[in-house]
User: Fold Short-chain dehydrogenase from Aspergillus mulundensis.
Amino acid sequence: MANSSEFGPLTPAIEVAAAFPNNIHGKTVIITGVSPKSLGLATAAAFASQSPANLILTGRSPDKVEAAINELKSIYPNVKYHALILDLASQSSVRAAAAQLNKDASIPSVDILINNAGVMAIPTLTTPDFATNHIGHFLFTNLILPKLIKAASTSSTPTRIINVTSFGHQFSPVRFSDVNFTKAGAELPESERPEYQKTEFFTGKSHADDVYYGFFSYAQSKTANILHSVALNQKLWEKHGIASFAVHPGAVDTNINRHATPSDIELALKRVKELGFDSAQKTPGQGANTTVFAAVGSDLRPVGFEGDHARGAYLADCKVDDENVAAFATNKVFAERLWALSEELVGEKFDF
Ligand SMILES: NC(=O)c1ccc[n+]([C@@H]2O[C@H](COP(=O)([O-])OP(=O)(O)OC[C@H]3O[C@@H](n4cnc5c(N)ncnc54)[C@H](OP(=O)(O)O)[C@@H]3O)[C@@H](O)[C@H]2O)c1
Assistant:
């Protein structure tokens, strides 16, 4: 059986999938955010290569999901593909999609859920990244959880929930007292302030006086993705045997940069390189490797805790990466606070 030491940053996701065929063959996998030229599509292709029973592909644009499925069908015609349309920024859309899936008797259980969809750094505070990247996924995950619990209770292969986060989480904790950006930095409690020095290093400006800055909004949402995984492990691992991991895919050439200016991206990549990280842009087929490994890697250990901090919850380049995850993103007290805040924002409590 292959293990993580055989994979590197540029290992194609399809090779990772091929190393764990039994964890994919005959399984049901859901991936959010599947459009042409996206990580979601590359992730789907890696799963499709190992004959899952069902690949449920979600997106907000029916045309894009259909185009992605047609692309997959041309290479892997024998897989059963399902399009599930949901707009993560709309709780009613998420509820409708979850209800559609829950009443589909042909899908009794779900083995793997990959919360991959995302937007980055919307320039103005219209629909915040937090609503799409975290709250939409929080609600969808909880609503369909009975199907994951069913898989965990009947299958000997891993049942996992993967949250696709980013190294960029490091720029901001969750602003529990100001999740919707109404305050500049000086007005925030110290524990909720963005990392201004780091921001200046990466973007050329600290943005300390900004009430809203798109990259802080993205960073908050990506920290929330990691804390969501921490909370899911606490609630689901011992009781149901369901694990959750948060994954940084690397710098990947997709449509994610659509809201960012090319000069910002260029400077950020230059800085990443100066810090000694591999800043080579990965192809989507390489960028999906850690997601696939987190979803099906047999040698991944369950997330543990050292004091208040989760260990083993954050992965990058096909391995656990406890060194490059911010302390505010692994704190189990913050994970509980985020869970409570998210329940408040969706108007529903969840107990499993
Ligand atoms: N690419 C990178 O360098 C990089 C680095 C770190 C982390 N990530 C993370 O990787 C994940 C995938 O991003 P990507 O690079 O593949 O970007 P992408 O090409 O822009 O794909 C994002 C996907 O999310 C979907 N999406 C956006 N808003 C949505 C909404 N409100 N409801 C439902 N779906 C929505 C998009 O749909 P539309 O096509 O209809 O917009 C698209 O399918 C994201 O979570 C991102 O934060 C990417």
About this structure: Residues 4-171+216-263+279-346 form a domain with the Rossmann fold fold (CATH 3.40.50.720). The pocket of NAP is lined by residues 33-35, 38-40, 59-61, 64, 87-89, 116-120, 132, 164, 166, 248-249, 251-252, 254-256 (CB under 6 Å). Strands lie at 28-32, 54-59, 80-85, 112-115, 159-164, 242-248, 304-306, 309-311, 314-316, 319-320.
